[in-house]
Design brief:
Number of helices: 3
Distance between the termini: 38 Å
Strand order of the largest sheet: 1-3-2
Shape: flat
Number of domains: 1
Number of strands: 7
Largest sheet: 3 strands, antiparallel
Structural class: alpha+beta
Radius of gyration: 16 Å
Length: 127
């Protein structure tokens, strides 16, 4: 059970990192923004409904039992999604919230590595 929970936490963390930092291409467009689009200071435009689709997908994954955790998606300092999914404590029926503290163990190493790779891809760091 611990192994399954660790894998779920790893998966959720990597999903959040992927969406927040690396693979925002499916959420972003470079065309003229529509009135409902979110324009970020960097000039990127979030496609209308993209965050809602992400929220719906995570809710479906929660319902399927393949995801449980807290998600924060932010670009250029602007919070696009901050929400808890599933239960933090199944025995007591306590739901996850954006403020739920999760035991991440050594997972911060992946965040650091990803940050280094992002900085390298932007030419701000050379490894």
């Amino acid at each position: 059970m611990k192994r399954k929970m660790s894998f779920a936490m790893l998966l959720s963390t990597m999903l959040a990192l992927l969406l927040a930092g690396c693979s925002v291409g499916s959420l972003l467009q470079t065309s003229t923004p529509t009135p409902a689009a979110i324009t970020l200071p960097s000039g990127l435009v979030i496609e209308p409904g993209a965050i809602n689709r992400l929220d719906a997908k995570l809710a479906q994954m929660t319902q399927d039992g393949t995801f449980s955790g807290s998600v924060l998606v932010a670009l250029d300092g602007k919070v696009l999604l901050s929400k808890g999914y599933g239960l933090a404590d199944r025995a007591q029926g306590i739901a996850n919230t954006p403020q739920t503290r999760l035991h991440l163990g050594s997972m911060t190493k992946a965040f650091t590595a990803l940050g280094i790779l992002i900085l390298q891809s932007q030419g701000k760091l050379s490894v």
